[in-house]
Design goal:
83% helix, mainly alpha
């Protein structure tokens, strides 16, 4: 069940970004990151959602945060 929920959050973030609904994509991405902070895919989806929302600075900040954890 946990893996299915993770997949659904990922799919929601991807679909919302593709449908030009960055607010929903950001919400789904944040939910995925909150549930599993080590989920790299969730971080990438959240960065893409922020980028789609025109929040490139926020996307870069998230990228830097993720890269410093590695």
């Amino acid at each position: 069940v946990t893996a299915l929920l993770r997949t659904l959050r990922h799919l929601l973030a991807e679909a919302a970004t593709a449908a030009d609904d960055p607010a929903v994509a950001i919400t789904a991405g944040r939910a995925a990151v909150m549930v599993d902070p080590l989920d790299e895919c969730a971080h990438r989806l959240l960065m893409a959602a922020h980028d789609a929302a025109g929040e490139q600075d926020r996307a870069r900040t998230l990228e830097e945060q993720v890269s410093t954890r590695s």
